[in-house]
Protein: Glucosamine/galactosamine-6-phosphate isomerase domain-containing protein
Organism: Listeria fleischmannii 1991
Amino acid sequence: MLKKFQNDETLAEAVSDQIESLLQKKPDALICIAGGETPLKTMAELVRRNKKGKIDFSKAYFVGLDEWVGLGRETKGSCRQTLYDYFYDQLDNVQPDHICFFDGKASDLDTECKRIDTFIEERGGIDFILLGVGMNGHIGFNEPGVPVDVNAHVVDLDDVTKKVMSKYFDQDLPLTNGISLGMKQIEQAKEIVVAATGAKKAEIIERTIQSEPTTEIPATLLKNAPNTQFFVDQEAGARV
Ligand code: F6R
């Protein structure tokens, strides 16, 4: 389902409403929020509601979506830095051991993937996932041509991702790989929101909405999941 919002603020409010009502029903829900720019407004809105006592995250669980291989929290622009600085560390009463995040510097990345998969399995799957969409349609670091039937795995970054990534970092980084939840466990999430904001996303949103599910545009694969909502602002939704 496609839903258009006036702007990125109203979109962030709608996502926050969904998370708020989920936590009322299931205080220990497992929530996954992407890094990158798109979710920043939602994170700010959730923090605001938490400070006002409207949302209680004290029993909630969180899992990371992805990370650049080789990066940790000390690198501004890493997924870990984004999620911790703008979200987890801003919330009152979050239990640190309820957060499971990819370690992009792990020496054994396969073991790291298994650790994340186990955390998700032990919680009975992801309850709510907020995703952004890459300029090439990627979801997390599931790049075009992605295998559909995998859980957390190591990925070769697509050329488009390598080009776009400089917007996150204040230095040139020779990054070639990512570590990401897989489409299988993403599609199994009980509520999925794919969000896109801004004019630069208009073309990929058009392609995503108009195309049949194809691994060439990973975002389209989420159309197969019954609980997927595509949330766009006016600019990102200008062609659909
Ligand atoms: C980030 C992630 C990526 C981004 C996507 C959109 O953790 O998983 O898939 O969601 O590249 O990035 P932004 O939101 O910066 O446009």
Remarks:
- Residues 34-38, 65-66, 79, 132-134, 138-140 surround fructose -6-phosphate (CB under 6 Å).
- Helices lie at 8-25, 40-51, 79-86, 109-122, 159-164, 183-187, 202-210, 218-221.
- The chain has a mean pLDDT of 97.
